[in-house]
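Q: Hi! First time doing this. I have a protein sequence and I read that you can turn it into a structure. Is that right? Here it is:
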Amino acid sequence: MAGNGAREKALQFLREVPRLTHSNVKGLPRVVGVERRSNKQRKRGQQGFDAGWGSSARQKLYFGPLGYESGSAPIQRATTFERSYNYGLRFQRQFPPITLAQLQLMIDTERLNPNQPIDMAALCGTKVAFIDPQKNHFGFNLTSEGLDNFTAKVNIEVQWADEQSIAAVERAGGRITCSYYDLHSVIALADPTKFFKSGTPIPRRLTPPSNLMEFYVTAKNRGYLADPTEVAEERLLLSQKYGYELQDQEGDFMKETKDPRQIFYGLNPGWVVNLADKVIYKPADPELEEIYSN
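A: Yes, that's right. Below is the predicted 3D structure, encoded as structure tokens:
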């Protein structure tokens, strides 16, 4: 009975009290030992306030509380730890993959001409493979998916490739080269028409950074800075490893290569291409010629 009476009194109280509005609602009750953010002030460690002790302990002339880890970095950051898989993802160079099956399909659908050298500009010109420099894309990574059905004889230049992809291209009588392009070169190759319309001189291709130099000077990776004699030896060793016979690289397009400072086939650094007048402007100043040729 007592319980029912208390319940009735509570319901009667709710019927009589006014509705809750902004004018009749008070703030939360204050909790002992917890200060509001607006009332917080910098205090000493003995008084229980620990903010700021990492960087200005000398100015307060008092030591921190017992067990306090001095320094600007907490102990969790000061000790070694394993970096996450995505550490530095926004700043690392990305190489979007392109498979051998996609490459064969582009050739079969006549999006690519196998009788011409294939580089990043040709792949982006198909409007099937894309490079976005704003996402730190530095070129294509040729993967081995579809290697059993790859039969095209091409002279292709990519930025990264594994051993199976290299073997598949050379087994068909083709040639593959792994070349590095800096960000300005990638912007020019991703959309050559847009780059030429801007009227910007063709930049020099920069050398690879220190952490990628070893990859591009190794003949096993078909790096563009490797010794041609070592590349020929590695081609023979790879054919013996996978059990196929090397074919002769016939055709003038198979022998076309780029200079380590060159970006486009047939166009040297420093030239300006005028698409409207179909004219190429070359630098006449000896200083410019020396800068672009070095």
